Amino acid sequence: MTGNETRILVVEDEPTIARAVADRLAAEGFGVEVAGDGPSAVERARAYEPHLIVLDVMLPGFDGLEVCRRVQAERPVPVLMLTARDDETDLIVGLGVGADDYVTKPFSMRELVARIRAVLRRVDRPRVDAVADGPVRMGALEIDQRARRVRRDGREVHLTPTEFDLLACLMRNRGAVLTRAVLLEQVWDWADASGTRVVDSHVKALRRKLGQGLIRTVHGVGYSLEGTS
What we know:
- The chain is an alpha/beta fold.
- 41% of the residues lie in helices and 21% in strands.
- It contains eight helices and twelve strands.
């Protein structure tokens, strides 16, 4: 997916921020459209069919979390959320409704573009077929990487694409402790270790959906997939 082929929808109710982001992305070679509230964001996402949405959390009409829910229900698309609040609950909810990453305001345009390119690279990256012989089971957990499905106790669990990629990475390395930097590189395709909180937030989302005993925290190091609760 090249810049000239990639469409980005910017959803931001502050005109100055929206225009600055749109101008920078256009200068980077992306196609860009802008929406300023929740209802118009859903409408533009449906008509424009963007490859990625840059989505502010606080919007008139209805908020970015509801935008994300409605858009993902119609057509899954990568979402990078913008938030002025560095609140753990907001981040968990945002990730839970299908956001792939987040940037906390104020942010630099360089950081925003880097995050966008990382998400797009990950979407384009071929999936690692580590389970060619079929689903992998570990206790009550079953992961089918070919079908990108997860079951726990025989019941399917809905994971976002990023949550599934993180779980699959931990499964491929089960028993080993992976640092946040390694997870950022392998799952998010980030070349540096900045923004490690996104790893912690996705791990918390996985624990909420799959159980607290699945992923072990090794304090000061990272995470390991070792068992089920």
